Amino acid sequence: MCELHPGSSWYATVESMCAAELPDIVSVVTPAKYMKAAVVTASKSPGIKAVQVDKPFGGPLADADAMVDACTAAGVLFAGGNLQRAMGEVQHAAARLRSGEWGSVVGASVHGWQGEILGGGCQHIAVLRLLTQAEVSSVVAWFDPVDGLTMEYDGEMVAVDNDESDPENGGVALRANAMLTLSTGVPCAVFGADTPCRGVDVWTDQDVLVRWDWAPPVVFQGIDATTGRRVPLAIDYPEKEFAEFDYLADSIRSMLRTIAEP
What we know:
Number of domains: 2
Number of strands: 13
Radius of gyration: 21 Å
Strand order of the largest sheet: 5-8-9-4-10-11-12-13
Largest sheet: 8 strands, mixed
CATH architecture of the largest domain: 2-Layer Sandwich
Structural class: alpha+beta
Distance between the termini: 33 Å
CATH class of the largest domain: Alpha Beta
Strand content: 25-35%
Helix content: 25-40%
Oligomer: single chain
């Protein structure tokens, strides 16, 4: 029998909720520090096919590993929710890069990585990994200002992730600058300070630049000799269902397709 909080309709535990409702999918929308326990518990509940979380889905990397391991051991899909990399147009551009149509990736950069590293910043890395088809193999990073390293998480110092325009939350915009090396050997500069760009740039040996900036990627090839500007390519992105829900629908539909596969 399910236990309920007195006077409310909330289940007291994840176990009691799963036992009563028998869901196929559990979506965890708690603050990040509570996600690990909810994900691990849900993954062990009978009948669960997928556990979905938003980003960021944890603090320490050990928590992320524990959630991935628990879902893997249970044969449960561990899915993300708010994923820019799931956007149909981003997937389309990535597929064309992967096919070699635009040449081989030889460089990449990340821009405007500040103020929301755990929130929006993880989107940059997810898109970078997809477009380059590579993992980050090494990181050299430096931060400005150092005062940003002032918050403790379970006794360890971590980066304060606040916007300097929000004084109520500390007013510290921690700018993370870095040089990443990807598993393919491609270098990737990370600019925490403002540049003329935002988001992720990936370029190839055929002078193609794919630029993601929180929207469908813009693709350029070559330089206009008159203006000195990059020449945009006309990309005919395919129409998609439920376009009014943008990339959130893409992410959810990807999860549903995966668990529907035999």
